[in-house]
Amino acid sequence: MDAFEPNPPFRRLLVANRGEIALRVIRACHELGVAAVAIYGPGEERAPHVRAADDARRIPSDAPLPYLDIPAIVTAAREAAVDAVHPGYGFLAENAAFAEACRDAGLVFVGPSPEAIRAMGDKVEARRIAAAAGVPIVPGSEGPVADAAEAGRWAEVHGYPVAIKAAGGGGGRGFRVAPDAAALPDAFAGAAGEASRSFANPVVYLERYLERPRHVELQLFADRHGHVVAVGDRDCSIQRRHQKLIEEAPAPGVPAATLQAMAEAAVALARAVGYEGAGTVEFLLLTDGSFYFLEMNTRIQVEHPVTEMVTGIDLVKEQIRVAAGAPLSFGPDDVAPRGHAIECRINAEDPGRGFVPAPGRIGAYAPPAGFGVRVDGAGEAGGVILPAYDSLIAKLIAWGRDRDEAIARMERALADFTIEGVPTTIPFDRAVLASPAFAAADLSTDFLPEHPEVIPPPAAPPTPADEMPSVPREAIVEVNGRRFSIRLHDESVPSRAPRPAPTARRNRPERAMPNVAANGADLRSPIQGAVIRVSVADGQTVAAGDVVCVVEAMKMENDIVAHRAGTISGLTVSPGASVRPGDRIATIE
Is residue 492 classed exposed, middle or buried when 0-12, 13-18 and 19+ CB atoms within 10 A define those classes? Predict the structure, then answer.
């Protein structure tokens, strides 16, 4: 297909997301000749995705996270007179109620049907459908498990370690592992509690926890004309807390026969639910060549660029075309990989402090360039990483004629990437790429615990980015919820964007590794966020490393642990309270 579409699939399309993926969809719309409408919440009036769109609407919502307010977004879509809504890859992309609300409003939802989303969104039901379609599944409970006692009885029969998983979600949220019976009650409570907060659904089920698997996934595409194509495979084994950090395509070192069997299983599953659009079927691959269904993501994935780089297919444009009723523009013979691609997620996190999130303001920002290098991001000098949202700044993708060339190009690109003002995962990415184990494709989801040498030391305190040279900027005028902009010159840089105090919310948090900031006897918060659980009381005795409270920040649950043994006094936090870096949590003496 040509880059310019003489017959646009839609007239106007609203992008129901923010940040990098919103920019990605807006650019695809422009290539297709479709007018793109952005939405925005507090503090994002000048966000890159807003400036890039043809039109922008404030989300008419007072919710803490307006991007999740389905009625408000549908209202904005109606007022903007769009034909279609693209949810990106965020929370709404796998929300059957949102797809249904769009359909009821006469809007085309760029994604699968609500029925397909619902079938794959319930992980217990997805396991049943997969098994019926002949797809191998991890041994697990036949349905939901009511409590820790029932989980213990199952584990006594099937053995440890046991994975406790949220039935209503995925992506590492509502997931705990119990290595033995003693750890099961806490793991069960943690998984059910996080599932309830993340997905408003505390139901969990059990699976055997597979030791040292690889995470290999198949990109799928289907249209309403009966075509289903496995577009390629990816390895996503480099993870922290069951969240992907580095992905590559094709999956290195996997026998062709195994990949073909995975592709056939993925296609069978898609046909079983009448799937339409882009989707990903994820598998766990063991060293003996056996593989098991993990979950199906009914959306475009964060790591989709590596597949685009090796196939030459614009998956986001294809989503929009297929949603408009067009047949797939490619077939099975058109998706053979050419070369190798690697993606590193550049997050505002400090790997040396357990990947603790680091909201703040970006200072200097200079992305790499050159042959075979792609940067998908919404970061910019002076931009603010808001604590209410995830920590992704950019995705860096490198292509090479083979894996060795892709690694060398990625190493060069990482060295060329400048981001100041906030700590990032770039030092970690560079260490992984330089690892002999990674070079040898000795990959598994246990890569980080097996190779602690790739974790860099804690980042130095960031340099303040408030003193920046004068730059042109846009002033925002908002009339009846519609955004207009005026470019101003010779003004100082915009003031720091407001940081609304985080509150407890249902937006899929994930668990971080323990972290602590202390000053003598005082235990202080190392991060900004919302307290979701307090594990101690005044007068209680604790040991060093015991969890004092859990703070949710940028979709991560962070254990704030005791820095010393002693007795708790002066406890200052309670569930729902907001804390900022340096706030005293308690005294331990």
Answer: exposed
* Residue 291 DSSP class: E
CB atoms within 10 A of CB 446: 14
Task: Kindly state the DSSP code that residue 546 receives in the 8-state scheme.
Answer: -
- Apex CA 292: angle with CA 288 and CA 296, to 5°? 145
- Mean pLDDT rounded to a whole number for the chain: 88
Phi then psi for residue 537, to 5 deg, are -140, 160
Q: What is the pLDDT of residues 384-428, one digit of tens each?
A: 998 888 899 999 999 999 999 999 999 999 999 999 999 999 999
Element spanning 518, H or E? strand 517-519
| CATH code assigned to 139-208 | 3.30.1490.20
Which residues, 6 or more positions from 382, have their beta carbon under 8 angstroms from its beta carbon?
Answer: 361, 362, 465, 468, 471, 493, 494
- 514-588: CATH number: 2.40.50.100
Q: Assign 3-class secondary structure to 412-474.
A: HHHHHCEECCCCCCHHHHHHHHCCHHHHCCCCCCCHHHHCHHHCCCCCCCCCCCCCCCCEEEE
Per-residue pLDDT at 171: 60
How would residue 169 be classed by pLDDT, with cut points 50, 70 and 90? low
Residue 511 pairs in a beta bridge with 557
Strands 584-588 and 566-569 turn out to be antiparallel
Task: Say which CATH class 12-118 falls into.
Answer: alpha beta
Enter the pTM of the model: 0.81
**In the predicted structure, residue 505 carries a pLDDT above the cut 80:** no
Residue 371 per-residue DSSP state:
T
Q: According to the model, what pLDDT value does residue 390 have? A: 87
* 12-118 shares its CATH topology with 514-588: no
- How many C-alpha atoms does 282 have within 13 Å on its Cβ side? 24
Please check the confidence at residue 6 and state whether its pLDDT lies above 70: no
Angle between helix axes 96-104 and 114-121 (nearest 10 degrees) is 170
Over residues 49-53, mean pLDDT: 97
Strand partners, 157: none
Domain spans of the chain, in order of start: 12-118, 139-208, 214-454, 514-588
Domain 214-454 is classified in which CATH homologous superfamily? ATP-grasp fold, B domain (3.30.470.20)
Q: Cα(87)–Cα(254) distance, rounded to whole angstroms?
A: 33
Q: Which residue from 80, 84, 90, 68 is spatially nearest to 28, judged by alpha carbons?
A: 84
Confidence at 14, pLDDT banded by 50, 70, 90: very high
d(CA 110, CA 320): 6
Cβ–Cβ under 8 Å, residues 423 and 358: yes
Please say if the pLDDT value at position 367 is more than 90.
Answer: yes
